[in-house]
Amino acid sequence: MKHFFYLLVLSFLLISCGTSRNTTRSNTRTISSNSSHTGSSASLNIVNRAKSFEGVRYKFGGVDKRGMDCSGLVYTCFQEENITMPRISRDMAKQGTRIALNQISAGDLVFFQTNKNRKVINHVGLVVEEKDGEVFFIHSTTSRGVIISSLNENYWKRAFVEVRRVI
Q: 38 in the Ramachandran plot: left (φ > 0), alpha (ψ -120 to 50) or beta?
């Protein structure tokens, strides 16, 4: 029974965050600290904290420089501003206010469904910049760890579900 419980918990967490598909490298870039930002100072602090994790490897359930998953990244960065978030991406998608994509700004959260067989949110990213209609977000992928990607990449464009503003 104990093993069943551990398997159940592990299965639940594995489907809650991450992607096994590689994204294209061409649109991935590092955003400077001077990037345009229209949000609050708390949003800027959260974005800067998230960027400090860029390059950290993926670790299921991780929340520090030794490794982290997508929801762990968001959870940790919001915690720095004393904002308590749920630990699972699909629960994070119930926080804040849903906004239109054309209202997006740094600090907003973008949510994805990366598993075509299950219609549930299982991945989250933090918007770091919107420039000339292109949205860049930081997130943790199983294949490349914490990276910045563009919402214009085909994979992310197809998997995109919604944007939410928490602060």
A: alpha
